[in-house]
Amino acid sequence: MSNVFSPGELIGLLRAERTGRALEEAICYRAILLGITKASLNTQSFISEASFQETARVLAKAALRGRIDWLKGLKENVVLGGMIPVGTGFKGLVHRSRQHNNIPLETKKKNLFEGEMRDILFHHRELFDFCI
Which domain of life is it from (predicted)? Predict the structure, then answer.
């Protein structure tokens, strides 16, 4: 089997152990405690890596390897202007129970700009008494 990683390349410890179990031959690696700079460059998301430091090198390496960024983290979604995976933007948050599979989930988007000016004034009468 050809080399999966380049000599001297930094990878996560769990990834090295998983690769060692998957290969028939033993791989040599050593654990290194990284500082904040190198730790930020050693993530699953190449967009997150590129936003921190060494942008050209990270993007070139990702392109050569044909990497796909699945946009699962907060940082890469912020960089690309996507919905961040927290709160109502987190699709993985909604779990349907097995016993409630037949109940459809109903979502409503409320348009704040549908109401007329008098509706706004009605709800905030004390603020807009001079307008009525």
Answer: Eukaryota
